[in-house]
Amino acid sequence: MNENTATDSFALLKGLRQLESSDPAERKHAVMVLSSYQDDTRVRDVLRYTADTDPDPGVCALARQHVLRTAQPTTESDPFSQHSSGQRKARSRSVAGPAWMCKFCRTENITGDVCPNCGADRASGQASAKERRRARAASGNWMASEQPFLFHPGNRRFLQGKSRGLSGTATGGLIAVLLVLVLAMVGLFVVVGIPHWLQARELDRSGVITQGTVIERDIHEDDEGSDTYYVRYSFVAGDGRAYERQQQVSRSNYSNWARGATVRVKYLTGDPAVSRLVDDNTADSGSRIVLIISVVAIALVMIFVVLAVDQRSRNRRLASKGQLLRGEVLVCTGHKDSDGDYFVTLRYCFLSPEDREITARDRRLANDLKHASLPAPGTAVAVLYADDDTYKVL
Description:
Blueprint: H1 3-18, H2 24-34, H3 41-53, H4 57-69, E1 100-101, E2 108-109, H5 129-137, H6 142-146, H7 156-159, H8 172-206, E3 208-221, E4 227-236, E5 242-249, H9 251-256, E6 262-267, E7 275-277, H10 282-321, E8 323-336, E9 342-351, E10 357-365, E11 380-387, E12 390-393
Helix pairs in contact: 1-2, 2-4, 3-4, 8-10
């Protein structure tokens, strides 16, 4: 692939991604970029759908303008017609009366003001995107006739009636394991972390300072080659007894405190075994970091448990009470990350039973689609719907 081809591919991919932006200005810029690639029918399909479905009138108008510029005369297919493997051919009928041809589906209509095939009115010759979706969803056998794209292939067994649960649902066993892990981490924190923290506070508040002596030094090297420095010191407490303790220190203090060096020691008079070096807080900093990491880890696992329980509840509700609706692809894009994994983002829409148009997006790791063609705009997808806040593309 030469440099120009690589540049074009990058610009095209960037334009497709910008169409998903919430900023109308960025989507307009994406339309301008994509308009240069309309020799690719897939790009034209994306621009047609943008003209039909974008919530911003300015973006719709800009996309329509660029598609019309490349449109053929009326003897060709209308630029906003939907292309699919099941596109109907124009039907020829000879019936008395003023005949007109639907610009959308190319069906010849003889007497009516509304196309009986797609719902377009005589004046515009084109049905709205919502009307087309409503007509397609109204077909009772759309699952069999259109063979919808499965964004989550694991749900195939559910659609076939061979499984009562949706794929990706957290099992009760997994949630139980996570709860046990949370309890274990909390127990460790209570048994080890809190007493250490209380001792450190007590030393700061009521510790007594005395002189001690460095009696031993040591360096520990971990598996990654990093060194940790320790000194062992001794001191005589107020009760006349000698005490020893090893403490982690900084590299500079390790270098300055040779064996036999005098150091300052703070200890608890009620328990002289609890002590620390006054002029080095490396160990305290390390302990604080460990405590912070422990608290963050406990919080993250608890959040994961809550999300898993919520997902399990939603999926069980959808599986038992959800209604299967027809949706369709607005745009589907894929990209590789730095590790070579392939991620696919799907933007889709569907009509709720109350005739509300809902647009949503989903994203997943999709190495199974790395060498496959992604669905074109207009491709059917299956959506399991319980209410406007609880739905899932299958």
